[in-house]
Amino acid sequence: MSDPGTESAEQSPIVDWAVAERVARWASARTAAPPTYRPASMQRDFDEMTARAEALVAEATGLAVASPARGRVIDRPAWVAANIASFQRLLGPTLTKLAARKSASPLDGVAPGLSRHLAGLSRSANGTQLALVLAWMSTRVLGQYDLLLTDGVDEENQDIVYFVGPNVAAIEARHGFDPTEFRLWLALHEVTHRAQFMAVPWLRTYFLSLVEAGLEPLGSDPRQMIDAIRRAATEIRAGRSPMRDAGMIGLVATDEQLAALQRIQALMSLLEGHGDVTMDRAGEDAVPGAEHFSRVLAERRQQARGPAKVLGQIFGLEAKLRQYAEGEKFVRSVEEAGGRRLFDRVWQGPEWLPSLAEIRDPSTWVRRVTPAALAG
């Protein structure tokens, strides 16, 4: 599968990316960095910690990457810009399909000039909504690895492990964390994600194929999303969460697309759980405060209230929080049954990956693969 293409603001039929970035940068910059944030000093620390983490992760997982990891400290607006660039690459195929369907738009009967004007307003509104979500998320993210690599496109700014400096400094100050330990602990998790995608040759292409299949509802009829928003609002007001596993997209997906979304959920649970287990294991001796860090961040993940909670439901962020716990349980259960040798079968190919049901009941995956594992 080829990588998603980049859509310009003029090409995108649903999102004005320039508006999204401009508004998100403005909104994210309104939250001041803590006085303890020293970008240059933090960058030096993460240069060292990323290199240390890479060696520890390779030893703990057996996943070795030929090229060295690069850690980059960024502020919130820069994190927003990086993610908008990723969204443009990720959504490329879906936006292309939407553009091809513009002839069926309700605006067809409108005078061409007015039609373009209304379409522009809609794209700007969508860009603004995306911007506000990203601005909110930019205040909570500590680290991130961007796997959406595109050959020949801005290669210097790809394959980067990001650390959102103001957020790291803020949580260190709030909880009295030792910066050296905490920064190494964070680097362990993000470097593990890089190792997963860079050391397992088929994983990135497989993940992107699942994402493309899961986004298919958006390419079939953009009006479905409006209906989904209305249904979601009704369910949330009634105290129910209609988006437990798939977020907003799950409300408009077909059975085949829901299956793809469930495979994405299972894969992300596996990767997040493996990241947490590796972070704790690799940092066992190097990070004495790891247990304390883990407990504080777990509590932080559960603290969303009010509008933040609604945002989490709509965009599937609550599902991401469950990925950590369910994935970690799966990894530990499998290793208890057969050690790392058994668990490492997940890296052999898509057919070895656990389903969502197997993530939640690890014994079923163990029973499925054990005969093959013993034969190997």
- Strand percentage, roughly? under 5%
Shape: globular
Oligomer state equals single chain
Spatial ordering of strands, largest sheet: 1-3-2
| SSE ordering | HHEHHHEEHHHHHHHHHHH
**What gyration radius follows from the Cα positions, in whole Å?**
21 Å
Mean pLDDT: 76
Residue windows where pLDDT falls under 50 for at least 5 positions: 1-11, 106-121, 304-315
**Helix percent band:** 55-70%
The beta-strand count equals 3
Explain what the structure shows.
The protein has 376 residues and is mostly helical. It has helices at 17-29, 39-61, 76-90, 92-100, 112-138, 165-175, 179-199, 203-214, 216-220, 223-237, 255-282, 290-301, 306-314, 317-343, 356-360, 362-375, and strands at residues 71-74, 143-145, 161-164. Helix 8 (203-214) packs across helix 11 (255-282). It is globular, with a radius of gyration of 21 Å.
List key phrases describing it:
376 residues, mainly alpha, 3-stranded mixed β-sheet, 3 strands, 65% helix
Topology:
Elements: H1 17-29, H2 39-61, E1 71-74, H3 76-90, H4 92-100, H5 112-138, E2 143-145, E3 161-164, H6 165-175, H7 179-199, H8 203-214, H9 216-220, H10 223-237, H11 255-282, H12 290-301, H13 306-314, H14 317-343, H15 356-360, H16 362-375
Parallel strand pairs: 1-3
Antiparallel strand pairs: 2-3
Helix pairs in contact: 1-3, 1-5, 2-7, 2-11, 3-5, 7-11, 8-11, 11-14, 14-16
TL;DR of this structure?
With 376 residues, the chain is mostly helical. 65% of the residues lie in helices and 3% in strands. Strands 1-3-2 form a 3-stranded mixed sheet.
